[in-house]
Design goal:
Blueprint: E1 5-9, H1 19-23, E2 29-30, E3 38-39, H2 49-53, E4 59-63, H3 64-71
Antiparallel strand pairs: 1-4, 2-3
C-alpha cells in the first residue's frame, strides 16, 4: 500500500547537493543529469528524512492527493 504522504522538491531552490539522496532510506531520490532532486513516487514513504536534512529547506512533505493535483 502506498504511503499517505510524499516528498516534493521545490526545484527553483534545490542546489543539487545530494544530501537528501544519502538520507533517504528508500533510495527514492535521484538527481537526473546532475540537476535538481527528483522523488520516485513509487518508492517514497513520506518519512521526511530528506526534508529534515536539506540545507536549503526545499523539500516538503505533502499528501499524495495534493501531489497529483499539482501535476494536473
Ligand atoms: S538536500 Fe535539498 S538542496 Fe540538496 S539535493 Fe536534496 S533537495 Fe536539493
Ligand atoms: S520522505 Fe523519506 S522515503 Fe520519501 S524521499 Fe524523503 S527520505 Fe526518501
Amino acid at each position: 500500500m502506498k504511503s499517505k504522504n510524499i516528498a516534493t522538491v521545490n526545484k527553483s531552490v534545490c542546489v543539487s547537493c545530494g544530501a537528501c539522496l544519502d538520507a533517504c532510506p528508500m533510495s527514492a531520490i535521484s538527481t537526473p543529469d546532475g540537476c535538481y532532486a527528483k522523488v520516485n513516487e513509487d518508492l517514497c514513504v513520506g518519512c521526511g528524512k530528506c526534508s529534515r536534512i536539506c540545507p536549503t529547506g526545499c523539500i516538503s512533505i505533502i499528501k499524495r492527493e495534493e501531489q497529483q493535483n499539482e501535476e494536473n
